[in-house]
Amino acid sequence: MTLDPIEQLNEDEKRKYIKGKKLGEGTYANVYLGHSRRDPSLLVAIKKIKVQQQYQDGMAPDAVRELKYLRELHHPNIISLLSVFSSKDQNLNLVLEYLPLGDLEMLIRDVDRVRYGAGDIKAWMGMLARAVWFCHDNFVLHRDIKPNNLLIAADGEVKLADFGLARAFADPGRRMTANVITRWYRPPELLFGARHYGGAVDVWSVGMVFAELIIRAPFLAGNTEVEQIALICKQIGTPTEENWPGVTQLREYTVPTDVVAVWGKEAYMGRFGAVGADGVDLLVRTVALDPKKRITAREMLQHRWWRTDPKPTKKEDLPRKSGGAADEKMGADLKRRNGIVDEDASAPRGSKVARKLDFGQAK
Amino acid sequence: MATEDARYRQTSQFQLWSFSPTQLSSMREKTNAAARTRIAERLSSLPALANNTSAPTSSANTPDPDGTSTPALPAFLSAPEEAQLVTFFTSELLRAGDHAEMTDEIKATAAAFFRRFYVTNSIMTYPPQEMLIVALFFGCKAEGSFVSITDFVKTFGRENPEEILAGEFLLCQGLRFAIDVKHPFRALRGALMELASHPNVDRARLGAAETRAREILRFSPLITDAYFHYTPSQIMMAALSLADRGLAEQLITQTFHHVAAPTDSGADTPAASGTDGPAKEPAPRSDDKAQIIGSVARDKVLGTIEACRDMLGRELPERREHWTNRAVIKAQITPLRKKLNKCRDPERWNLVELQRARREQAAKKSDSEDGDPDDRDDSKANNKNSNNNNASDAAVFGDALPRDPKRRRVLGEGAGQKGKGLDDPFGGPL
C-alpha cells in the first residue's frame, strides 16, 4: 500500500527517532529509551501507549488527556512532548524528553545515601510551584501531583509529568469527577465528594509534597479514604462550618466525632521547622482546609520564603542519584497507569457510569 | 509570563491550524490534486475497472493528473466542490451533534476537527459520513467526555462501532495529534460581563445580544473557515457585532481609548521625542500606549472584526435550513455526491478494511514492533530503501491477495448501494 501525504508525514516523524532498549513495561504503556537519528546524543523517552484490553472504546482517556495538554504546555518545569507518531499497528507513541535522574520520590526515600537541606527543598519546591502555576495560568488542572510524577532532568531541573488525569478548568456550574489525585495527596474537598473545584486541589498536593520533602515520608498516608479524612482531621484540623463555611453540604462529608481545632503555625514548627518559619508559613497556607482560603499557585510564587535565606540551591548543585536505577525509574514512572475510568460532564445521553477508582496501585 | 497574544501564538491552533485565505485555498488545491493523481493510479491498477466503465483504453494505464481527458477514469471533484461538500457535511455533523444532545464545546470541537482533517485529506479519499461521526466521537473525548462506543453508535442508529473506532486514529493523525481547540464561547461571556459592569446598561438589550451572538457562535464560525483565519476573540467580537453592532463598537472604543495628547503629535516620528529633554520624559510610555490601545491598533482590529463579520454573515444560523432544504440538496449536493461515489479512493474508503490491511502489513513487516531492539534495527534497515520501495515490495508479495476481496467490496458498494450512500448519515429525519 502506498503512502498518502498524511501517512508520509507520520513516517517522517517516526524516522526522526531510533528506539532503543525498553525502560519499562506496564499495562498502560511501554517506555523505551531512544535517540534522535540526526543527533544521537539527543536522548528521548518513547512512551508507546498500548491498545488496552479493558478499554474497548478506542483511544484511552489517559492517552487523550496526556496528548491534549502536553501538546499545548511548553514550560521548563513541565515534561516536553517532542513528537507524536503512530507505529504501524496504530499504537500511539509519545516522544518525551529524556529525564535520566529519576524522580523526587527516589530522593526522598533514599534516606541513607541522599542528604539534602533547606536550600535544596526550596529549589525543588520552586520548580514545582512554577510548573503548577503555569498549568493553572493556562486553565489546566493536573490532578495527580505527587513525588513520583516529578521527574528530574540531567541538569537537575524538576519536571512535572504524567498528564493522564489532567483536564481544563470547567465552566462554573459544570460538574467534574471527585475521583482524582492519588489518595495521600488528595485534598479534603475531593475526599468529601466535591464536584466543583479549582486549582486549589493541586495546591493541596503541592503542600503534601512539600511536607514529604521535609520529613522524608508521606505526611498523611491513609489506607482508605475514611482513614485519609481521619488523618487530615487529626494532623491539620477537623473541617467544620466555622473554619470552612458550606463544608457540611458536601455530599460525602463525614468526620470523626472528636473535633480537633485547626493547628496553628507553631504546632508545625517542631516537625517541619527545618524550612524555617517562613517555609512553615507557606506550608500551612497550602494545606488550608477551605479551598477558598488556600493559597493560590500565583500567590505561592510571591511568598516571602523564596527570598529569605537560605537561597535555593542551583539546580546543577542539587543532590542526585545516578546510574541505571534512575533510568528504570523513568520507565516505571511513565508506564504507570493512573486510575480514572470515567469523566465528568455531559456526554451524549445515557453514558454516565461513575465507576470507582483504585489509586491503591500507587503504593 | 507573556501576554495573552504571545500565549495564543504558542497554541497548536495558531501554530498548526491557522492560515491566510490564500494559504488555505492553495492547501486545498494541493490536497485535491494529489488525491486525483493517487486515486487515478489506484483505479487504473484495478483490473475490475474495465467492467465498471465503458471502453477500456490503453490510456487507462497512464493516469492523467487532471483526471479529465482519460475516458476510463471517472470525473473527479474539484477543490471548490470538495469544499462545498465539506461544508454540507459540517452542517450534517452539527445536526448529528444536536440530535445526540452534545454540548456546544463538543460540537464545536468536532466541527473544527472535521474541517481540519479535510484540509490535508481529500473527501474523495476518506468517507465524510463516517468521518463526521468519528469527529463527534473524538470530540467528546477531547472535551473530557468519555463515552462507551456501543452507546455512542446507537445514538446514531448505527450497529457497527468498528468503523468509528477504525477512523479514530486516522482522524487523530490527520489533526497532527493537536486536539486542543480554543473556542469563543467563554470570551462572549466575558465580554457581556464587562458590558454589564457599566452604569445605566440596558439589561434586556445585553440579554438579547448574548442570546443572538451565542446562536451565531454555535453555527456560523463552525461551518465557515473562520477558525482557520481568526482568533477566538475576533470571532466572538464579530458575532457580537452581528448581534448588536453598537455594543461591539462600544467594547472596542472603550478598549482602544488612548487618545494621543497634543504634545504627542510626533508619535510617528520617534526622533522628535528624543530632542525635547526632560519635559518629554513620559513620552515613550505614551508611545507604547498609543501603539497598543491607540487609534491605529483600533482600526486594525476593527478591520479584522469586520472581515470576520462578513464571513460569519454569509452563514447566519438561519442558513441551517438552507443546508437541509430538499431543493437545495437536490440541486447542489446530490450531483456532487453522485460524482463522489464514482471517484472515491478504492484503497482508503473503507475504514475497517483499511485498518485491517494496515495491521496485517504491520504484522508482516516486523513480527514485534514491541519486541527487542534488534527487531527494530531490522526494520530500520528496510526503511533505508525508502518507503516507496518498501511499500511496493510488500504489494508484490503480500498484498495482492487480501487486496482483491477488499476491492470487490468497495466497488460492490459503489454499484449496489448508491441509494444507501446518499442516506442521512445518522438515520432518518429528526
Keyphrases for this structure?
heterodimer, A: 363 residues, alpha+beta, two-stranded antiparallel ribbon, 13% strand, globular, B: 430 residues, mainly alpha, 2 domains, 67% helix, 0% strand, Kinase-like domain-containing protein (chain A), ATP-binding (chain A)
How many E strands of chain B? 0
Please count the beta strands of chain A (DSSP E, at least 2 residues each): 9
Form type of chain A: globular
The total tally of domains of chain B equals: 2
**Distance between the first and last residues' Cα of chain A:** 47 Å
- The CATH topology of the largest domain in chain B corresponds to Cyclin A, domain 1
Strand content of chain A: 5-15%
Helix and strand composition category of chain A: alpha+beta
- Return the string of H and E elements of chain B: HHHHHHHHHHHHHHHHHHHHHHHH
Q: Which sheet architecture does the biggest sheet of chain A show? A: 5 strands, antiparallel
Mind telling me the C-alpha Rg of chain A?
21 Å
Report on the biggest sheet of chain B: none
What is the H level of CATH, i.e. the homologous superfamily of the largest domain in chain B?
Answer: Cyclin-like
Task: Count the DSSP helices of chain A.
Answer: 11
The total count of helices of chain B amounts to 24
- What's the multimeric state? heterodimer
The proportion of residues forming helix of chain B, as a percent range, comes to: 55-70%
Unreliable runs of chain B, pLDDT <50, ≥5 residues? 49-61, 264-282, 367-430
Portion in helices of chain A: 25-40%
Report the largest inter-chain contact. Answer: A-B, 58 and 68 residues
Distance between the termini of chain B: 48 Å
Pfam families (chain B): Cyclin_C_2 (PF16899)
Biased composition (Basic and acidic residues) (chain B): 278-290, 356-368
Protein name (chain B): Cyclin-like protein
Biased composition (Low complexity) (chain B): 382-395
